[in-house]
Design a protein that fits this description.
Number of helices of chain B: 18
Number of helices of chain A: 14
Radius of gyration of chain B: 26 Å
Structural class of chain A: mainly alpha
Order of helices and strands of chain A: HHEEHHHHHHHHHHHH
Structural class of chain B: mainly alpha
Helix content of chain A: over 70%
Shape of chain B: flat
Strand content of chain B: under 5%
Strand order of the largest sheet of chain B: 1-2-3
Number of strands of chain B: 3
Oligomer: heterodimer
């Protein structure tokens, strides 16, 4: 991929070696640990297990799209996709909204001690997802929680509420991270623009709405896309919550479904599910990207 | 662009706001702080309690302080296996992050700055890698490693973690947004080797077309967002006295190709040397540009230390036009680009760099390293 490269002759010929040096380490590792495993997963997803008679030895044979048909008929898998989609539809806007609001406040002259607040909001991101989930599991518990007044009357771990309890954990972890991205974007807005706005008589709210938010829109798109990807791939939090709440089943999220299918073990079906999930993720984030890009250029 | 003094940056907007909106804003911040920190506080308090106190005493306040007993028990757990785990994490996070950053940065840079057949395809394939669910990779990886007999070794964890498609994506954006082609051209003509130059440039960014102004003398001028990794703080170069406040800011890194004395690590050294090196502000005359004030003072030493200009000949040979005219074109284009960058694209490189402090830290180290090898000057603006 690297060496057969001639577009600008003076450059390409002279720098062929350099190009190879830059691209080869990543290219080799990417091929070994991304491309080959993915191809292997695709290959596996095309296999199916057959037995001779009822008790014959299991043999893996080429099964065509059998596994994919099985995936599309697998109701728990689709239920889990619908579940994370509804999760994302609610949680991602809330998380990004809070992150944006906090970033705007940090950037405004209204707030003192921005350094402390920045650190305080970012701190949860330093907590590993598993630890965060265990911790919130305790905080939600009816007996051990510091907020037993609330948790003993309201069940955070019931079938109806546990998804949103998990949403709170995810929000808690990632608001600070997203806030930092947005805040960095805000910092790179040139001061002259604010000056001009102030001369025109704009107040802080007006500046935030008409200048800051439009200018940080690319950062919002970026955080949005990665939040969507993260949501579709939820695994650690629900896995931990399964030990607190019986409402979290082994097919709670797509990744959890794949995980439990693989440990059956039904590698081929799990591989097919992974491929479907990857394609779905790709389509969704690509759609969002295209939609927002179109709006941005208008 | 005149910059006689660096204005104190007051974030946001107006300096006077009503007490009511101040109070509301602070109230919101405090509520948010409670939300984010209370669970962490609970975690810490819980870690200081004995097992029986954990269930029987008030969850948000200390009982018998048993933190050290707990930590001792943790370290003693299974003959200190926890320390082993910590070391493992340090290895995977440290070595893995360092190498992954390096590898991704090289690839991203190559994709951004070289034209070659299949470039876009390669980039799209890499980007597709971001979207692959971890579980989809984990299984086949495990099977592959077990066939190679490498499960239960550090390689099975470390090697896959060296591949970061997202890192490639980031450094491509960063490289194309922040490393102008002119700089590369200038460095090339000055005879820097392709690979070595890339490390210089990784740390670098052309600031306000400053590099174009003095492309003859300087390989690279760099804008670099750092959170204060021992770089001299703002103003330290202007008055020769380094100040202790280390905030975020833009850092100029300038490489010339002189054998080096002792440049680069400590703000104090740096400030002093520059003070000696430049006689005063406003004396810089390079090309057709007009750097003045503090900025000129910083630019000056690079132009005066007797570096033999080799750029002109090279430019002529490459483009068949006189060096000065070519340079004037470059300056003009750079300014225009910069204006567009500020107006529209909103400093994508700042965003990304700040987001990845680690990336910044690694690059800062690279700068530090480069400075020991060759001429390198760092200034914060």
């Amino acid at each position: 991929m690297a060496s057969d490269t001639v577009v600008t002759p003076s450059r390409a010929v002279r720098h062929r070696t350099a190009l190879a040096v830059f691209l080869l380490p990543f290219g080799v590792l990417f091929a070994l640990f991304y491309v080959i495993p993915i191809l292997y997963a695709v290959y596996q997803s095309l296999l199916t297990v057959e037995r001779e008679g009822t008790f014959g030895p299991a043999v893996q044979v080429f099964g065509g799209l059998t596994q994919y048909i099985a995936v599309f008929q697998n109701e728990p898998f689709w239920a889990s996709i619908v579940r994370v989609l509804s999760f994302g539809a609610v949680q991602v806007p809330i998380m990004l909204g809070v992150a944006l609001a906090l970033a705007l406040l940090l950037d405004s002259p209204l707030v003192r001690g921005t350094r402390f607040f920045r650190l305080a909001f970012f701190a949860p991101y330093a907590v590993p997802a598993v630890i965060a989930a265990i911790m919130w599991g305790f905080l939600y518990s009816p007996n051990l929680s510091p907020f037993t007044a609330v948790t003993s009357t309201f069940d955070f771990l019931s079938a109806e509420t546990v998804l949103w309890s998990i949403a709170n954990v995810v929000t808690w972890v990632y608001v600070g991270y997203n806030m930092l991205i947005i805040y960095s974007a805000l910092l790179s807005i040139p001061q002259e623009i604010y000056e001009a706005a102030r001369l025109d008589g704009a107040n802080q709210l007006r500046i935030a709405w008409s200048i800051k938010i439009p200018l940080v829109a690319p950062a919002l798109v970026l955080t949005g896309i990665f939040s969507i990807i993260g949501t579709l791939q939820l695994l650690a939090e629900p896995q931990v919550f399964a030990s607190f709440s019986s409402a979290v089943t082994s097919t709670f999220t797509p990744n959890l479904t794949i995980y439990s299918t693989a440990s059956v073990p039904n590698m081929s079906l799990a591989a097919a599910m992974s491929v479907v999930l990857a394609v779905a993720t790709f389509v969704l984030s690509f759609t969002v990207l295209k939609l927002t890009q179109r709006r941005a250029t208008l | 662009m005149t910059m006689t003094s660096i204005p104190v940056r007051r974030r946001g907007g107006a300096t006077r706001e009503s007490a009511v909106s101040r109070t509301i804003a602070m109230a919101v911040m405090l509520v948010a702080t409670l939300y984010f920190l209370t669970p962490l506080w609970w975690l810490f308090v819980a870690a200081t309690k004995t097992r029986s106190d954990f269930t029987t005493t008030a969850p948000l306040w200390f009982a018998d302080f048993a933190l050290f007993d707990n930590v001792a028990a943790l370290i003693g757990y299974r003959d200190g296996v926890f320390l082993r785990w910590l070391l493992n994490s340090a290895l995977y996070a440290g070595v893995g992050a360092l190498l992954a950053t390096l590898i991704a940065a090289m690839a991203g840079y190559a994709i951004a700055k070289y034209t070659f057949r299949g470039r876009e395809t390669l980039f799209n394939v890499v980007l597709g890698g971001v979207l692959v669910p971890a579980t989809a990779l984990a299984l086949p990886l495990f099977l592959i490693f077990s066939q190679a007999g490498a499960t239960n070794t550090i390689w099975a964890v470390l090697l896959p973690s060296l591949v970061s498609p997202f890192g490639v994506y980031l450094s491509r954006i960063y490289a194309s947004a922040s490393v102008p082609d002119e700089i590369i051209e200038a460095a090339r003509i000055d005879g820097a080797g392709e690979v070595r130059r890339r490390f210089d440039r990784r740390a670098g960014y052309d600031d306000d077309g400053a590099a174009s102004r003095r492309a003859r003398h300087v390989c690279l001028v760099v804008r670099f967002v750092v959170f204060g990794f021992g770089f001299p703080p703002r103003g330290s170069l202007a008055d020769g006295r380094p100040r202790s406040s280390a905030g975020s800011g833009r850092v100029l890194v300038a490489f010339d190709r002189q054998p080096l004395r002792h440049v680069g690590q400590q703000g104090a050294d740096l400030g002093r040397r520059h003070r000696v090196a430049h006689p005063g502000p406003g004396e810089c005359r390079v090309g057709d540009a007009e750097p003045t004030g503090d900025f000129a003072a910083r630019v000056r030493p690079l132009a005066t230390e007797g570096h033999q200009p080799r750029g002109r000949v090279g430019l002529q040979r490459l483009h068949g036009i006189p060096g000065d005219r070519r340079r004037a074109e470059l300056v003009g284009r750079r300014r225009q680009e910069h204006a567009e960058l500020v107006g529209r694209r909103l400093g994508a490189q700042q965003l990304l760099l700040r987001r990845f402090r680690l990336l910044a830290a690694v690059f800062a180290r690279l700068v530090g390293h480069a400075s020991r090898v060759r001429g390198c000057r760092v200034a914060r603006v």
